[in-house]
Amino acid sequence: MAVPTDEEVVKLPPPRLIGKMSVEEALAKRASVREFSREPLSVSDISQLLWSAQGVTRSWGARTAPSAGALYPLEIYIVLPHGVFRYDVRHHSLIRHLSGNVMVALAQAALGQGCVRQAPSVLVIAAVYERTASKYGSRAERYVKIEVGHAAQNVLLAAVSLGLVSVPVGAFQDQRVKEVLNLPANQEPLYLLPVGYPAKNGKP
Question: In sequence order, which residues have a C-beta less than 8 Å from that of residue 202 and are 6 or more positions away?
Answer without folding.
Answer: 35
